[in-house]
C-alpha cells in the first residue's frame, strides 16, 4: 500500500504526521471556531471608528463539525497505517499522540504528585515494556532492521572521516556506497552481507545532517528543535500588556507604558503579579486621582476584553501543542527513515514551523530589538509600519518568483524529457533514447541519478568512451553498484581489462549478496584468458548462499558450470 507515494514507508510517514493533528483537533475542538461579529472596520491600518459593519450578531462554526471531521480522519488513518507495515511511522504516530495526551491530561503532574513511592517500580516496568516492544519490532522485520544497523555503521565511518563540516549538502548519496564497499572489503564474511543493497539514505535525520553538514550543522538543528519544544513564551501576560497599551491610548494617555506607568487602576485589577511588579507605583498614583464611579463604569468592558484575550491565548496554546505534536511525530519517524526526502512531509513540517513562529512576537515589531531603522522613526505613522514591512516583503517575494519562473519552467520540461528517455530505455530503444538524454543533459548534469541512467544507456548502445565520461562524472553526485557495473562493461568492451576488473570488484563489494557483479567478473576473467581466476570465481558463485531463488540465478550457475567444464 503506497497511496500516491513511491513506497509504503513515505506514505506511512505522511500519515503519522497528519494523525496528531486530527487527534488534537478531536480532543480540543472546543478551542477552534470561526467567529464573525460586528466590529470596527479597518482598511490598510486605518481604523474607521464611525463606520460599523451591519449588526450581524455573532455566530460560530459548530465545533462539532471539526470534531467529527477529525474523527473520520483518525479512523481512516488507523485503518491504513498498520497495512503500510512501517515501524518508524507507528513509533512516530505514538509519540505525537502521547505528546498530546501528556499536555491534555497533565500527566506530568500526575507522575509528580500521585506516584511517588512506586516511582522505581513504575520506571522498571516501563523499561521492561519498552525493551520487549523494541525486540518485537526488531524481529517483526529483522532483515530491514539489520539493514538499518549496517547503514548506521557505515554512516558512522563517514562521520569519523568528516566530523566537523561534513561532506557537503546533499552529498550523502555521493559517498555512502563507496564507504559501504570499504566496510565489506575490510570485514569479509560480515553478517550484514545478505542485507546489503544500493542505498542513498541515512535512515536517520540527525546522522544525515551530521554527515552532510558536520557537527556544526547538527548543533544548529538541535538548537532550532530546542527553541521549538523548550521555549515557553508568556503569551497570556503579553496579551494583557497589549490590553494595557490599548486602554492607555483609548483614554488619551500618550505616556510610555513601561517608562511612565500610565495604567488605569481598573486594568491593574485584572493582571497578576508580573504586571503588578512592573507598574505598582503607577497604579497607586493613578488610583489616587480616579473616582470609584469611573472604575465601576469602565471595569466591565475591559474585564470582558481580558477574558477574550485569555480565551484566544488558550486557543493559541492548544494550536501550538498540536503543531508540536505533528513535528514530534515527524522527528521520531526521522530517526528511522528519511522525511527530509519526502516533499509532502517536508511541507507539513514547514507549515508547522511557520505557524508556530507566527504565534511569537516578531523582532521587527519590538522597538528594543528592531533591525529596520525606518520602523523606529517617530515621524512614521504607526499604521504605516506594518504596511511598509508587509509591502516590502510582498514585493521581494513577487520579484523572486518572477525571476525563478523561467528556470523552474525549463527544469520541469527537462524532467519530462528525462522521463521520455527513460520510457524509451525501458522499451529497449537504446539508440532512440539518447537524443532525449542529450537534450536534458545541460540542465540535469548535476543530477547523479540522471547521469547514471544516461551513462548506462550509452554503454548499452556501445558508445563506450562517452559512457565512461558520463559515468565518471556521475561519481561526484551519486554512487551505486549499477554505475560500477556499467563502467566495467564499457572498459571491458574497450579491452581495458584491469579497469573493468576494478569496477566490477567495487560493485561486488558494495553489495556482496548479489550474484550479478561476481558473474560479470567470472565472464571477464574467462574472456581475457585468466582461467585460474575464472575457475575460482565460478566456484565462489556456485557455493554462494542464495537468499531468494530466481531464474536469473539458475542461469548464472549454469554458465559457471560451463566455465568449469572447459
Question: What is the topology?
Answer:
Layout: H1 8-27, E1 35-37, E2 40-43, E3 46-52, E4 58-60, H2 63-84, H3 87-104, H4 107-114, H5 119-140, H6 142-161, H7 172-186, H8 205-230, H9 235-250, H10 257-260, H11 265-268, H12 273-288, H13 292-334, H14 343-358, H15 373-376, H16 384-426, H17 430-444, H18 448-460, H19 464-474, H20 481-493, H21 497-510, H22 516-527, H23 531-543, H24 551-564
Antiparallel strand pairs: 1-4, 2-3
Helix pairs in contact: 1-2, 1-3, 1-13, 1-14, 3-13, 5-6, 6-7, 6-8, 7-21, 9-13, 13-14, 16-17, 17-18, 18-19, 18-20, 19-20, 20-21, 21-22, 22-23, 22-24, 23-24
Labels describing this entry:
566 residues; mainly alpha; two-stranded antiparallel ribbon
**What's the total count of β strands?**
4
Kindly report the spatial arrangement of strands forming the biggest sheet.
Answer: 1-4
Helix content: over 70%
Report the C-alpha radius of gyration, rounded.
33 Å
pLDDT < 50 runs, ≥5 residues: 34-60, 234-293, 361-379
- Principal-axes geometry comes out as globular
Largest sheet: 2 strands, antiparallel
SSE string, helices as H and strands as E: HEEEEHHHHHHHHHHHHHHHHHHHHHHH
**What is the number of helices?**
24
Mean pLDDT: 78
Instruction: Report, as a whole number of angstroms, the end-to-end distance.
Output: 49 Å
Notes on the protein architecture:
This protein is mainly alpha-helical and 566 residues long. The protein is built from 24 helices and four strands. The strands form two sheets. A two-stranded antiparallel sheet has the order 1-4.
Amino acid at each position: 500500500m503506497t497511496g500516491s507515494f513511491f513506497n509504503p514507508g513515505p506514505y506511512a510517514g505522511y500519515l503519522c504526521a497528519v494523525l496528531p493533528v486530527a487527534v488534537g483537533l478531536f480532543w480540543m475542538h472546543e478551542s477552534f471556531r470561526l467567529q464573525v461579529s460586528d466590529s470596527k472596520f479597518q482598511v490598510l491600518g486605518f481604523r474607521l471608528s464611525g463606520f460599523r459593519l451591519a449588526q450581524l450578531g455573532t455566530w460560530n462554526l459548530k465545533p462539532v463539525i471539526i470534531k467529527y471531521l477529525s474523527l473520520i480522519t483518525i479512523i481512516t488513518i488507523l485503518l491504513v497505517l498498520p497495512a503500510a507495515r512501517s515501524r518508524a511511522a507507528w513509533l512516530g504516530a505514538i509519540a505525537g499522540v502521547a505528546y498530546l495526551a501528556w499536555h491534555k491530561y497533565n500527566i506530568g503532574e500526575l507522575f509528580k504528585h500521585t506516584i511517588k513511592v512506586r516511582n522505581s517500580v513504575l520506571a522498571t516496568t516501563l523499561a521492561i515494556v519498552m525493551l520487549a516492544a523494541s525486540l518485537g519490532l526488531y524481529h517483526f522485520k529483522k532483515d530491514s532492521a539489520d539493514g538499518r544497523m549496517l547503514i548506521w555503521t557505515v554512516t558512522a565511518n563517514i562521520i569519523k572521516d568528516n566530523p566537523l563540516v561534513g561532506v557537503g549538502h546533499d552529498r550523502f548519496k555521493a559517498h555512502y556506497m563507496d564507504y559501504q564497499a570499504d566496510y565489506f572489503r575490510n570485514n569479509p564474511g560480515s553478517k550484514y552481507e545478505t542485507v546489503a543493497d544500493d542505498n542513498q539514505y541515512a535512515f536517520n535525520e540527525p546522522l544525515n545532517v551530521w554527515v552532510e553538514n558536520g557537527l556544526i550543522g547538527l548543533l544548529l538543528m538541535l538548537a532550532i528543535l530546542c527553541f521549538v519544544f523548550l521555549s515557553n513564551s508568556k503569551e497570556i501576560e503579553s496579551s494583557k500588556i497589549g490590553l494595557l497599551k490599548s486602554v492607555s491610548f483609548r483614554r488619551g494617555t500618550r505616556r510610555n507604558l513601561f517608562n511612565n506607568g500610565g495604567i488605569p487602576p481598573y486594568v491593574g485589577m485584572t493582571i497578576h503579579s508580573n504586571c503588578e511588579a512592573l507598574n505598582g507605583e503607577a497604579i497607586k498614583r493613578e488610583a489616587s486621582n480616579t473616582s470609584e464611579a469611573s472604575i465601576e463604569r469602565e471595569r466591565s468592558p475591559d474585564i470582558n476584553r481580558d477574558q477574550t484575550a485569555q480565551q484566544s491565548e488558550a486557543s493559541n496554546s492548544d494550536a501550538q501543542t498540536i503543531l508540536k505534536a505533528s513535528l514530534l511525530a515527524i522527528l521520531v519517524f526521522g530517526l528511522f527513515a528519511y522525511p527530509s526526502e519526502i516533499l509532502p512531509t517536508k511541507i507539513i513540517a514547514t507549515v508547522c514551523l511557520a505557524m508556530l513562529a507566527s504565534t511569537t512576537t516578531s523582532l521587527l515589531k519590538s522597538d528594543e530589538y528592531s533591525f529596520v531603522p525606518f520602523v523606529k522613526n517617530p515621524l512614521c505613522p504607526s499604521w504605516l509600519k506594518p504596511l511598509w514591512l508587509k509591502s516590502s516583503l510582498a514585493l521581494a517575494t513577487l520579484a523572486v518568483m518572477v525571476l525563478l519562473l523561467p528556470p523552474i519552467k525549463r527544469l520541469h520540461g527537462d524532467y519530462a524529457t528525462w522521463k521520455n528517455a527513460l520510457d524509451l530505455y525501458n522499451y529497449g530503444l537504446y539508440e532512440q533514447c539518447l537524443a532525449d538524454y542529450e537534450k536534458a543533459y545541460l540542465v540535469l548534469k548535476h543530477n547523479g541519478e540522471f547521469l547514471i541512467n544516461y551513462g548506462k544507456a550509452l554503454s548499452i548502445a556501445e558508445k563506450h568512451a562517452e559512457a565512461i565520461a558520463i559515468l565518471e562524472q556521475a561519481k561526484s553526485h551519486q554512487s551505486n553498484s549499477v554505475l560500477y557495473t556499467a563502467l566495467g562493461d564499457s572498459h571491458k568492451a574497450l579491452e581495458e581489462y584491469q579497469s573493468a576488473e576494478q569496477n566490477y570488484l567495487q560493485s561486488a563489494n558494495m553489495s556482496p549478496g548479489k550474484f550479478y557483479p561476481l558473474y560479470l567478473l567470472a565472464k571477464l576473467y574467462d574472456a581475457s584468458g585468466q582461467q585460474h581466476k575464472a575457475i575460482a570465481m565460478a566456484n565462489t558463485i556456485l557455493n554462494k548462499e542464495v537468499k531468494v531463488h530466481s531464474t536469473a540465478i539458475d542461469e548464472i550457475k549454469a554458465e559457471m558450470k560451463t566455465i568449469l567444464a572447459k
